[in-house]
Amino acid sequence: MEAETLEMTQAEYARHRGVTRQAIKNLCDKQKIPFRKEGGSVLIDVAAADRALGETRERITVAREEDEPGLPPGASAQLTKAKTATEVYRARTAQLEFEERIGKLVPAQQVTDAAVVCAENLLTILNSVSQHAEPLALAAKKNGAAGVRDALKEIVRDVRTQAAREFEKLATAAMKAKQPASPTEAE
């Protein structure tokens, strides 16, 4: 038994998809969806076009069932659009969950906590700069502005090194926290 082919005009298919007729015409022109010309009309095989656009068989079946008499005009297209939006939301949520599991994404609170720790470390390091007042004064006495400039360059180099060490410690701690416990640790 052969399934009946559901065909629509470009305008009907555009309503079915929730897009403009021009968008469907462009897809036909680019041969992205299958169609046939009958007289002056372009007829689109709904199931084939939906498949070509990546839709599921379930959505196609639901769309056919919804085209029953008694539904208000446009209700089928609106329902299809709402179901499509729901499926897109579910797919995006699943993608985010997957990316979080593989470590590509981290929870926002974890990022906020890490930023706080980084800021605290930076402030501690920056506050240590005031401990260099005596060497700066001595450099100013011995070599004037050139001595102060050289001393400041050395202080900045030391602060950068200290900051790099602190951030390396944070990165190491984060990597250890991210690694799953070994079977013996878990017991």
Summarize the structure.
The protein is 70% helix and 6% strand. The protein has 8 helices and 3 strands, in the order βααββαααααα.
Give the secondary structure arrangement, pairings included:
Layout (H helix, E strand, L loop, with lengths): L6 E3 H8 L3 H9 L5 E4 L2 E5 H7 L4 H10 L8 H27 L6 H20 L5 H46 L4 H4 L1
Antiparallel strand pairs: 1-3, 2-3
Helix pairs in contact: 1-2, 4-5, 6-7
The shape is: elongated
Number of strands: 3
Please tell me the overall pLDDT. 80
- Measured as a percent range, the helix fraction is over 70%
What is the domain total for the residues? 2
* Sequence of strands across the biggest β-sheet: 1-3-2
CATH architecture of the largest domain: Orthogonal Bundle
Low-confidence stretches: 56-61
CATH classification class of the largest domain: Mainly Alpha
Strand content: 5-15%
Q: Biggest sheet, open or closed, and with what strands and sense?
A: 3 strands, antiparallel
Q: Alpha-carbon distance between the termini? A: 59 Å
Describe this structure in words.
It is a single chain. The protein is mainly alpha-helical. The protein has two domains: 7-100, Multidrug-efflux Transporter Regulator, Chain: A, Domain 2 (Orthogonal Bundle), CATH 1.10.1660; 108-186. Helices cover 70% and strands 6% of the residues. The protein is built from eight helices and three strands; from the N terminus they run βααββαααααα. It has helices at 10-17, 21-29, 46-52, 57-66, 75-101, 108-127, 133-178, 183-186, and strands at residues 7-9, 35-38, 41-45. Strands 1-3-2 form a three-stranded antiparallel beta sheet. Helix 1 (10-17) packs across helix 2. The radius of gyration is 33 Å and the shape is elongated. Mean pLDDT is 80; it is low at 56-61.
